[in-house]
Amino acid sequence: QVQLVESGGGSVQPGGSLRLSCVASGFSLNSYGIGWFRQAPGKEREGVSCIRSSDDSTYYADSVKGRFTISRDKDTVTLQMNSLKPEDTAVYYCHADFGNMGEEWGPGTQVTVFS
Q1: For residues 24 and 3, is the Cβ–Cβ distance under 8 A?
Q2: What DSSP assignment string belongs to 25-52?
Q3: pLDDT tens for residues 15-47?
């Protein structure tokens, strides 16, 4: 069974850091593009960062550039989040893009940055 599970969410003060992890079962994370998305209350889900399967090139939303870093190690994709701001508060989701074969989402992990 294909499944993604996120971990590492929590509550921090502005300027703090969190490290999110995404672990897969039923397939290898190394074989597909993996992304992190987030959804704040009352807002649409938005892309935060992704890492391609072909060359591990990365993408970051302008709002997180210079603060977030995505990386891949064997079967874990991590999102290191530094200098967190209250506007980073959201549920963060891991996403796997299987191309023509579809996609998979994790259940999400809550990140709260409180001032």
Answers
A1: yes
A2: ESS-GGGSEEEEEEE-TTS--EEEEEE-
A3: 999 999 999 999 888 889 999 999 999 999 999
